[in-house]
Amino acid sequence: MKFINIGSGNMVAAGRVVALASPDSAPIKRLVSEAKEEGRVIDVSCGRRTRTVIFTDSDHLILSAIRAETISNRLYDSEGGEDEELDEEE
Q1: What span, in angstroms and rounded, lies between the C-alpha atoms of 70 and 52?
Q2: Confidence (pTM)
Q3: Is the CB of residue 63 less than 8 Å from the CB of residue 43?
């Protein structure tokens, strides 16, 4: 299982990430607000500005201070690393 650094020393399992979104649009703000009321939000921004909302397969939302593009690159690199390891073993 691969973990991705999402800022401030926090990690998320790469396989559990469903989507990454910017918190700026009204629909995303509404989703975050509803999830907070239901206790499904994990805020790892450490008081900094939220730049990415991470949607997981367990319906939790993770708020991160790292840009979505950076997290996306880390996810992509993680997936590429798995493939390379498999190729080396064969």
Answers
A1: 10
A2: 0.85
A3: yes
SS3 8: coil
DSSP string covering 53-79: EEEETTS-EEEESS-HHHHHHHHHHHH
d(CA 22, CA 65): 11
Rounded Cα distance, 66 and 22, in Å: 11
Which amino acid, residue 7? G
CA-based end-to-end distance of the chain? 20
72 token code pair = 């996306």
pLDDT, tens only, 21-51: 999 999 999 999 999 999 999 999 999 999 9
